[in-house]
Automatic annotation (TrEMBL):
This is DUF6534 domain-containing protein. Residues 59-120 form the DUF6534 domain. It comes from the Eukaryota. Keywords: Membrane, Transmembrane, Transmembrane helix. The keyword Transmembrane applies. The chain crosses the membrane at residues 12-33, 53-74, 94-116. The keyword Transcription regulation does not apply. Pfam families: DUF6534.
Length: 148
């Protein structure tokens, strides 16, 4: 998707930003997997917060960036041909809808993870329901642990 942004926006800056956010998200997810593998006891999952926060925030930021870039870039491509404009409007609508759904889900997940004490990330991430317009986004389902 980053390359599509490069083509639509005709600029390297959004491409580099989207790629950096996607790689950051990937690093956060790998970091989380390594953390869970090194400390597989469920009670210790609360001890690592940076990895899932990195993963979730980078994914949400990438989704927002991609949606904004696509909307802005495609809005500049309008022409005097109404059929072409209708197709551009359809693509813009799709980019906004999917980008908003995935970004809101990832941001809500990150906010709950940071603000609710004793939340953990289960071992099996749940994919987002909408197709992510950019990164391979998935978000962990958060669970509340009640200490005995």
């Amino acid at each position: 998707m980053a390359w599509r942004i490069r083509v639509v926006m005709q600029s390297w800056i959004p491409f580099v930003l989207a790629t950096a956010l996607a790689i950051t998200s990937l690093v956060g997810s790998i970091w989380l997997a390594i953390s869970v593998a090194n400390s597989p006891q469920f009670q210790t999952f609360d001890s690592f917060k940076a990895a899932p926060i990195t993963w979730l925030v980078a994914s949400a930021a990438a989704d927002i960036l991609i949606a904004v870039c696509l909307v802005y870039g495609l809005s500049k491509k309008r022409s005097k041909v109404s059929q072409l404009n209708d197709q551009i409007d359809r693509i813009i609508r799709f980019a906004v809808q999917t980008g908003a759904i995935t970004a809101v889900a990832a941001l809500a997940d990150a906010i709950v993870f940071v603000s609710v004490p004793h939340t953990t990330v289960p071992l099996k991430p749940t994919p987002l329901p909408a197709p992510a317009p950019g990164t391979l986004s998935s978000t962990p389902s958060l669970m509340r642990i009640h200490a005995d």
